[in-house]
């Protein structure tokens, strides 16, 4: 069975690491890993391949950055150029980035069945580029691997056939279980930054709706600066956010008050998360990882596609347009952590195996 897996952005390297391993351990599976080149800095790409044992990409299309149309269009063309000669039985795509959509569309137009890992997530905000990408990708997928029951319900309510949907759990939970315990004793970075376990908040901000709107960008960084008067705030800075802070002439000021560092690898990030007192983020992945590591999390967004943890009372959604973000962050910091659900919503930590098993036991067929 020939499979082409398409990845390109930081969270996709993490998700693909466990699925790729599981696929390649099976007889008769030949996987070609294609990197779109959407993320290209060493700290945004290479480090994840090295740390998580993801095989080196067989092809790097080196598409790089650009406007949505340019980036997605160039990927579509380049991925088609790979799929025609490869003629795989399946194309696997992950999550909701422009790489996801380009991979799915290139395959669907060639009548190659598409597998979507992380199907059915919905924020119900079509203003988000990610929501457009996931809705369209699901629509052309033959196998929809949903991480949670909520995702399954979303697909049902959009009329997807049950026989195409598999609720397998979240592959990021698999990764956290595989590598998370190693993070416990990985304190070199904490020492280097002169921070102590439980004595800092960890923040990441990168979502376009937050970085590309000057009011929201200012509100978020004002709140983080206020929070830093209560507790040290560590911020591994996404390149998009660095560029926007720089353009708004905020970078220097923010740098003085927060512990701002370059993006870190998965293992250092897991260590930073596990030892934090609070996580403040707009990341899709990190809002779940904080739960996996037992750390409360404030989500600086208007909505989330991972609603389960908000409903459980673990995560709190705080809109960056709310007038009282700073107060709510401080309240959350000192709040007593609620008990964790014994039966978490993200599966049993074997999502990747279930995905590989299902792909191998299905006859490829186009979704109609
Ligand atoms: C993308 C995804 C987002 C995901 C995020 C994960 C889309 C539409 N968005 O957002 O869903 O949460 O990845 O991190 O696909 N840049 C660099 N070096 C890099 C990569 C990017 O400097 O290695 C800079 C460039 O200036 C670029 C900007 O970051 O223009 C944004 O990168 P891009 O890949 O377009 O979107 P992300 O914000 O990373
Ligand atoms: N992450 C990382 N280093 C960082 C910031 C994030 O390894 O400096 C990891 C994080 O732990 C999670 C993933 O990257 O596993 C999430 O990626 P990101 O927030 O970029 O994208 P999203 O999940 O929002 O699509």
Keywords for this entry:
368 residues, 46% helix, Rossmann fold, binds uridine-5'-diphosphate, seven-stranded parallel sheet, alpha/beta, binds uridine-diphosphate-N-acetylglucosamine, globular
What is the residue-mean pLDDT, rounded to a whole number?
96
Question: CATH homologous superfamily name of the largest domain?
Answer: Glycogen Phosphorylase B
Structural class determined from secondary elements: alpha/beta
Largest sheet: 7 strands, parallel
Q: Strand share of the residues?
A: 5-15%
Low-confidence stretches: none
| Structure summary, number of beta strands | 13
Strand order of the largest sheet: 3-2-1-4-5-6-7
CATH architecture of the largest domain: 3-Layer(aba) Sandwich
How many structural units, i.e. domains?
Answer: 2
Question: Gyration radius, to the nearest Å?
Answer: 20 Å
The H/E string reads: EHEHEHEHEHEHEHHEHHEHHEHEHEHEHH
Helix tally equals: 17
InterPro entries: UDP_GlcNAc_Epimerase_2_dom, WecB-like
Enzyme class: isomerase
Pfam families: Epimerase_2
Domain UDP-N-acetylglucosamine 2-epimerase: 22-359
Provide a compact summary of the structure.
With 368 residues, the protein is of the alpha/beta class. It is built from 17 helices and 13 strands.
How would the blueprint of this fold be written?
Layout: E1 2-7, H1 10-24, E2 30-35, H2 46-52, E3 59-60, H3 68-86, E4 90-94, H4 98-109, E5 114-117, H5 129-140, E6 143-146, H6 149-157, E7 165-167, H7 171-184, H8 188-192, E8 200-204, H9 208-211, H10 214-227, E9 232-236, H11 239-247, H12 251-257, E10 259-261, H13 266-274, E11 278-281, H14 284-292, E12 297-299, H15 308-311, E13 315-317, H16 325-334, H17 351-361
Parallel strand pairs: 1-2, 1-4, 2-3, 4-5, 5-6, 6-7, 8-9, 8-11, 9-10, 11-12, 12-13
Helix pairs in contact: 1-7, 1-17, 3-4, 4-5, 7-13, 7-14, 10-16
The structure holds uridine-diphosphate-N-acetylglucosamine (UD1) and uridine-5'-diphosphate.
Uridine-diphosphate-N-acetylglucosamine (UD1) is lined by residues 9-11, 38-41, 44, 65, 96-98, 129-130, 206, 239-240, 243.
């Amino acid at each position: 069975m020939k499979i082409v897996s398409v990845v390109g952005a930081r969270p996709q390297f993490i998700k693909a690491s466990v699925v790729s391993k599981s696929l390649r351990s099976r007889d008769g599976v030949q996987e070609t890993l294609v990197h779109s080149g959407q993320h290209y800095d060493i700290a945004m790409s290479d480090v994840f391949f090295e740390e998580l044992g993801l095989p080196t990409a067989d092809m790097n299309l080196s598409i790089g950055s650009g406007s949505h149309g340019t980036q997605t269009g160039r990927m579509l063309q380049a991925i088609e150029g790979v799929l025609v000669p490869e003629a795989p039985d399946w194309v696997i795509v992950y999550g909701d980035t422009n790489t996801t959509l380009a991979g799915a569309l290139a395959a669907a137009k060639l009548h190659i069945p598409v597998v979507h890992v992380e199907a059915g997530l919905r924020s119900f905000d079509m203003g988000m580029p990610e929501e457009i990408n996931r809705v369209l990708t699901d629509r052309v997928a033959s196998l929809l691997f949903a991480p949670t029951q909520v995702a399954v319900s979303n697909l049902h309510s959009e009329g997807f056939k049950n026989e195409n949907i598999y609720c397998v759990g979240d592959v990021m939970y698999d990764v956290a279980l595989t590598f998370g315990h190693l993070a416990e004793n990985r304190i070199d970075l904490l020492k280097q930054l002169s921070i102590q376990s439980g004595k800092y908040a960890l923040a990441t901000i990168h979502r376009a709706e937050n970085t590309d709107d000057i009011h929201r960008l200012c509100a978020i960084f004002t709140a983080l600066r206020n929070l830093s008067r209560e507790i040290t705030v560590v911020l591994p800075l996404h390149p998009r956010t660095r560029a926007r802070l720089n353009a708004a002439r905020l970078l220097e000021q923010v740098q003085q008050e927060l512990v701002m560092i370059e993006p870190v690898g998965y293992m250092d990030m897991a260590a930073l998360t596990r030892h934090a007192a609070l996580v403040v983020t707009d990341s899709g992945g990190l809002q779940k990882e904080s739960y996996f590591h037992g750390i409360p999390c404030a989500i600086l967004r208007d909505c989330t596609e991972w609603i389960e943890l908000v409903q459980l009372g673990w995560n709190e959604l705080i809109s960056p347009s709310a007038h009282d973000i700073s107060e709510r962050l401080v309240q959350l910091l000192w709040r007593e952590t609620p008990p964790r659900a014994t039966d978490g919503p993200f599966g049993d930590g074997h999502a990747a195996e279930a995905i590989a098993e299902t792909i191998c036991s299905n006859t490829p067929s186009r979704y109609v």
